[in-house]
Specification:
By secondary structure, the protein is an alpha+beta fold. The protein is 32% helix and 16% strand.
Length: 79
């Protein structure tokens, strides 16, 4: 299943994809840097993995204003 950037903040979207049979969630993002933004990003990716017991692969743009932090979590939220 594919989520896009902002949808990472909404558990319902990931849940619907998992219930529809997705084996993996892919999340291309353009996460803008700022206070605590990297921590929010990591927390949300891990949370979506844990909530749905499904691996999540998130990749962020680099350069300019983006954090550039790609992250893969297994179904237990381990990076």
């Amino acid at each position: 299943g594919i989520l896009v950037c902002y949808e990472l903040r909404f558990p319902e979207v990931a849940r619907k994809l998992a219930l529809a049979g997705a084996d993996l969630l892919l999340v291309p993002t353009a996460w803008v840097s700022g206070p605590l933004k990297e921590e929010h990003y990591q927390t949300l990716v891990k949370t979506r993995a844990l909530e749905n017991t499904i691996p999540v692969c998130a990749c962020d743009q680099t350069g300019n204003i983006f954090i550039g932090r790609s992250l893969i979590c297994d179904a237990l939220g381990v990076t």
